[in-house]
Design brief:
- The complex is a heterodimer of chains A (about 475) and B (about 325).
- Chain A is mainly α and about 475 residues long.
- Chain A has one domain.
- Chain A has 16 helices and 6 strands.
- In chain A, the strands form 3 sheets. In chain A, strands 1-2 form a two-stranded antiparallel sheet. Chain A has a two-stranded antiparallel sheet with strand order 3-4. In chain A, strands 5-6 form a two-stranded antiparallel sheet.
- The longest helix of chain A is centred in the first third of the chain and has 41 residues.
- Chain B has a single domain, classed as Formate dehydrogenase/DMSO reductase fold (Up-down Bundle).
- Chain B is built from 14 helices and 4 strands.
- Chain B has a two-stranded antiparallel sheet.
Chain lengths: ~475, ~325
């Protein structure tokens, strides 16, 4: 039976991790987008790529900073609230997360400085390389996090020794097929987040008739990329479904809202699944489609939730609805991206006010899809913290008092809301100000180690900086 | 392998204490400064490096988890509330660096409070944790078995106070290195006062430890060579005191002496606790993860990335050396 303290710990973890994931998923996407912009500028020499690069770099700075701040908390939360998990699976999860700190943080810290302040001080190829390395850093971070989480979904390459998960084969852990469908799924989700934020910003400027050239590029690049990436994402989503089907049948049954074994199985499109009565209400379903989706056959037997003891089932409603919201967001995004591409190829993109409004309002969709996708994966894994190995109720810190967790939950909600409000106001201010054509110098007080400072607007000309003596060039990269 | 990782952990924690120590200290002193120009200069003096300094906290955390999972699970479960408030403090002061600059006048005080309060809170909680650790945590059968507020003892509070003063002293030393003019004078005046206050707290801590007959004292009696470290620390303190009275002295001296003091205090703890990782209940070997975990970490991050990180830290400090220039302060 779950204690109140454990329930509160779960709420706290859900809240802090959900808050955190918003920022890295956007910064991974934006880092990749910055690399593309820089490559295009090198190839074409067009000014618009330069001004877009500078504009999105500022936003990247704020987003990245909020991600770093909210991420520090995560490094300790496993120990404070989930000490049994830390102890039992620490020999595997600990090294994976330590690799994240060592590889990703190191790359980010080293190359962010050059990207922010080194434009006029390093050769173009090195600047390009730094941008790519920054993107690689954010991507590596995602890789280690997905390696860690995939092991929690499908633990492999270990034996239990003295009650502790002892790694026996790291290559199994790192080349787990589950990891290699989930990591691309997350990476594509981040890229799509980037493309839709970019396209929505472009649409906003079109609607307000500002920054026409930049808006033109942002709209097209955002929507065209999305038009290619979105089908790919659906494909990887399908592969994710396959691993759940094969490795976590009870999660799959919950997502499908399937209570009884069926052969051939129908696909429940919409319903209200009720855990108490173990049935669906207002069910809308398509016969046979369930077998097709689950096993690519017309008469496969698909298992239902009732095959599993009640104590081993996740709460059905959350994965069921979260999954449908995620897929729904994905399909809307696909429609917008394809409609935009189709109109764009005919040169009528900006004329379609309806599509501009749709694109503008689409920016929350990728975030909602990422959050609901994670809800599906994590709540669907319940009642396990590590699937089949450690139950969530046994993973929590023993004898943690309700008062302690209630306090920490309240403190995190207040603190995070506070910084979220101010962060949002600030990003909004930046978006409203828009890209600038006049060449503004970076803020001399901003530094690599203070990512958010880059957003300060400076009036001084960059040319003045460029004429600084070259002997001091290397030190000023850091000093400025 | 265990020895390698315990050394890396010790190095990471020491680097964290020294580096974030001075910037938390500057945050604490920020509360004493009244003039906007001084406050701005103080923030500028640590702005380029604080984020990198805090990275060593994350490094310490993940190395502890990866290499010594048992210690990680017991420590943070036991220190739940102090860890919570330390992290809250760090988050608030972290965003204050960014938001204070651009807050419009009616809101600026909010971020000043966040910077000062967050720094103070984080430093105090770190000291409390050290104190609670020295007094000993209730551990039974690989679990923390004490209460949620067991850490809150007079000794821990004294330690918290002591660390705040120690960090403030480091911070004042750093300001002396980085500043000119009025702020430099202020920092100079702060140093002797802070040093006297710190000395008073340390004496109180020592008396308390004697009165309570804390176990850490026994390891001092059985390991007389330990006194080398306090002796070196006293030497550093003596240099600090003698220089303070001279009219002209090297601006770097107080910071250097404080660094030696902190390193010596840290080494004293390390050796008095040896071979325990959680004093006097879990040894380093007991806390260590399986060899396969330690080796996996060693052949990648330990052997290749750690040296790069250290080199990067050195380079970053090297290019930031010297006094703040007017261009660094004025906006």
């Amino acid at each position: 039976m779950e204690t109140v303290a454990t329930l509160l710990s779960r709420l706290q973890f859900a809240f802090t991790i959900s808050f955190h994931i918003i920022f890295p998923s956007l910064s991974i996407g934006l880092a990749a987008w910055l690399s593309v912009l820089e490559a295009l500028r090198l190839a074409t020499g067009r000014q618009v790529y330069r001004s877009l690069f500078k504009f999105w770099l500022k936003i990247f700075g704020v987003v990245f900073g909020l991600g770093v701040v909210s991420g520090i908390v995560m490094a300790f939360q496993f120990g404070t609230n989930w000490s049994e998990l830390s102890r039992i699976s620490g020999p595997i999860q600990g090294p994976l997360l330590s690799y994240e700190t060592f590889t990703a943080f190191y790359l980010e810290a080293s190359f962010f400085g050059i990207v922010l302040f080194g434009r006029s001080r390093v050769p173009p190829w090195l600047y390009m390389l730094s941008t790519v390395m920054l993107a690689l850093g954010t991507t590596l971070s995602a890789f280690w996090i997905m390696a860690n989480n995939s092991w929690m979904q499908v633990p492999v390459g270990y034996v239990m020794k003295n009650g502790v998960a002892t790694p026996t084969d790291w290559s199994k852990i790192l080349f787990n097929s589950v990891l290699w469908v989930r990591f691309p799924h997350m990476l594509l989700a981040s890229f799509l987040t980037g493309t839709f934020c970019v396209a929505a910003t472009g649409a906003w400027y079109v609607l307000r008739r500002r920054f026409e050239e930049e808006a033109h590029v942002m709209l097209r690049m955002g929507l065209y990329f999305a038009a290619v990436l979105m089908p790919l994402q659906l494909f990887f989503g399908h592969l994710n479904g396959d691993y759940v089907h094969d490795r976590q049948p009870v999660k799959f049954a919950a997502i499908e809202g399937r209570w009884h074994d069926e052969q051939p199985a129908s696909e429940v499109l919409l319903a209200i699944p009720e855990g108490a009565t173990e049935r669906n209400r207002y069910s809308l379903s398509v016969p046979v489609l369930g077998s097709v989706i689950g096993s690519m056959s017309f008469n496969s037997k698909e298992v239902g939730l009732l095959d599993f003891p009640r104590a081993d089932r996740p709460p059905v409603a959350i994965p069921f609805f979260a999954f449908r919201i995620m897929v729904g967001c994905g399909l809307v995004m696909l429609a917008i991206a394809w409609a935009g591409t189709w109109l764009g190829r005919r040169g009528r993109l900006e004329q379609s006010r309806a599509l501009m409004w749709l694109t503008f309002f689409s920016f929350p969709l990728p975030f909602i899809a990422i959050l609901t996708g994670w809800f599906t994966a994590e709540v669907g894994r319940q009642p396990w913290a590590i699937y089949g190995l450690l139950r969530t109720a046994q993973a929590a810190t023993p004898a943690l008092s309700e008062h302690s967790v209630a306090t920490s939950l309240a403190v995190s909600v207040v603190t995070y809301s506070f910084i979220f409000v101010f962060g949002s106001i600030y990003i909004h201010r930046l978006l409203r100000a828009g890209p600038t054509r006049e060449i503004a110098a970076p803020n001399p007080n901003a530094t690599a180690r203070r990512p958010m400072s880059v957003v300060d607007e400076r009036a001084a000309g960059e040319d003045a900086n460029a004429s600084a003596p070259m002997s001091s060039a290397t030190s000023t990269i850091f000093e400025r | 392998m265990v020895l390698f990782w315990v050394s890396v952990l010790a190095l990471a924690v020491l680097l964290y204490v020294l580096l974030d120590g001075f910037d938390l200290g500057v945050g604490i002193l920020f509360g004493l400064a009244r003039k906007e120009a001084s406050r701005r200069a103080m923030m500028r003096a640590v702005a380029p490096v604080w984020d990198g300094n805090e990275t060593w906290l994350v490094v310490s955390g993940v190395v502890l988890w990866g290499a010594f999972p048992l210690a990680y699970s017991i420590l943070f479960a036991a220190l739940y509330i102090p860890v919570l408030f330390m992290l809250t403090g760090l988050v608030l002061r972290g965003v204050a660096f960014e938001f204070r600059e651009r807050a419009t006048e009616p809101f600026r005080w909010l971020w000043s409070v966040a910077f000062f309060g967050g720094s103070l809170l984080a430093a105090f909680m770190q000291g409390v944790m050290v104190g609670a650790l020295v007094e000993g945590l209730a551990v039974g059968d690989d679990h923390y078995v004490g209460g949620a507020m067991s850490w809150l003892t007079p000794f821990a509070v004294l330690s918290g106070l002591g660390l705040c003063l120690g960090y403030a002293l480091l911070g004042a030393g750093w300001l002396l290195v980085k500043s000119d003019g009025e702020l430099r004078g202020t920092a100079r005046r702060w140093i002797p006062r802070l040093a006297v206050a710190l000395l008073a707290v340390l004496i109180a801590v020592f008396v308390y430890a004697l009165a309570k007959d804390l176990r850490i004292l026994q390891s001092w009696l059985t390991r007389p060579y330990l006194f080398v470290f306090p002796a070196a620390a006293v030497g550093a303190a003596a240099i600090l005191a003698s220089r303070a009275r001279q009219e002209r002295y090297q601006d770097r001296t107080p910071f250097e002496m404080m660094t030696i003091l902190f390193a010596m205090a840290f080494s004293t703890f390390l050796i008095s606790f040896w071979p325990y990782m959680i004093p006097f209940s879990v040894t380093i070997d007991e806390a260590a993860g399986p060899h396969s975990s330690l080796a996996f970490m060693f052949w990648g991050e330990g052997l290749f990335i750690l040296p790069l990180m250290l080199a990067y830290t050195l380079i970053a400090y090297r290019v930031f050396r010297g006094k703040l220039r007017p261009v660094d302060i004025e906006y």
